[in-house]
Design goal:
Blueprint lengths: L6 H15 L15 H19 L3 E7 L3 H7 L5 E6 L3 E3 L2 E3 L8 E10 L12 H4 L3 E11 L11 H6 L4 E6 L15 E6 L2 E7 L7 H11 L12 E3 L7 E2 L5 E5 L5 E6 L3
Parallel strand pairs: 1-10, 3-7, 4-13
Antiparallel strand pairs: 1-2, 5-6, 5-10, 5-11, 6-7, 8-9, 8-12, 12-13
Helix pairs in contact: 1-2
Length: 268
């Protein structure tokens, strides 16, 4: 007798349970493992729906993963992946989070944007230049990546995408509307941990320019029945080497004229 339960729903149930119980596995069971990104994003939608039912809140945009060559080589892919940002795991800087809320605490300094207008589906691909007209503000941010896999680089892109692109949380700074005169590709960011500078990065690390990431997303979403909308936030990927935060760490990402983002991992 075969089960009539949709394997995509079973995969979402499995991933949600891993989050609730703070467990990691080597890989998704073969019977529910997505074979391609189409199945992966269908699982992701089901997982996000479950998280919204449990945590409340709403979808507020997208996180983009694997926008640098190192991550793409690790997953053996040639393009980024997207996940979904949720209001329940989004915080305004400065903030303090409990370290035990995350299986791992991978810290990524990232440029982020908020869309000022809906982005029409277009037969002509969006570019860095054409997508800029739809962007409202830029925000400095830190994404916390937290995954359910013992080694995320070994499970393949579809499994990573299914797990909401291994998103944990997003902390953002003050929005800036006066960004168009800036060269975001050359704009630098520095990460300080407990008063010591540990990482340096700049915008060119993500597809050559952070706006290239937004253009990629605007072109990619329609393949999966989605569209960039007014108000959506987009985080564009890590601009430096990652940092693995420890309990007690106090982190500060300094984006120069775009502001700072601060987060501390201490138990309340």
């Amino acid at each position: 007798m075969t089960s009539d339960i949709d394997p995509r729903t079973s995969a979402a149930d499995f991933l949600c349970a891993l989050r609730v119980t703070s467990r990691q596995v080597a890989a998704l069971p073969a019977a529910i493992r997505p074979a391609d990104l189409t199945a992966a994003y269908q699982i992701q939608d089901r997982l996000v729906n479950q998280l919204l039912q449990k945590q409340g809140g709403q979808r507020i945009g997208y996180k983009i993963a694997c926008t640098n060559e190192i991550a793409q080589r690790q997953l053996q892919i040639e393009a980024p992946l997207f996940g979904q940002l949720l209001s329940s795991s989004t915080y305004t800087s400065p903030t303090t989070l409990a370290p035990d809320d995350f299986l791992v605490r991978i810290i990524e300094m990232e440029f982020a944007f908020q869309m000022a207008q809906d982005v029409p589906i277009s037969a002509v691909p969006y570019t860095q230049e054409s997508i800029a007209a739809f962007v409202g503000v830029v925000l400095p941010g830190i994404e916390i990546v937290s995954h359910r896999f013992e080694d995320w680089a070994k499970v393949g892109a579809p499994s990573v995408a299914a797990d909401n692109a291994i998103h944990g949380a997003w902390i953002h700074g003050t929005p800036s509307a006066d960004w168009r005169s800036l060269d975001l590709a050359q704009h630098k960011a520095n990460l300080t941990v407990n008063g010591r500078t540990v990482r340096h990065g700049q915008g060119s690390a993500v597809l050559g320019h952070p706006l290239n990431v937004v253009a990629w997303l605007a072109n990619e979403l329609p393949h999966y029945g989605k569209q960039l909308k007014r108000g959506d936030f987009i985080t564009t990927g890590v601009v430096s080497e990652i940092y693995l935060a420890q309990p007690g760490d106090q982190l500060r990402a300094d984006f120069g004229g775009l502001g700072v983002v601060e987060v501390a991992f201490t138990n309340p």
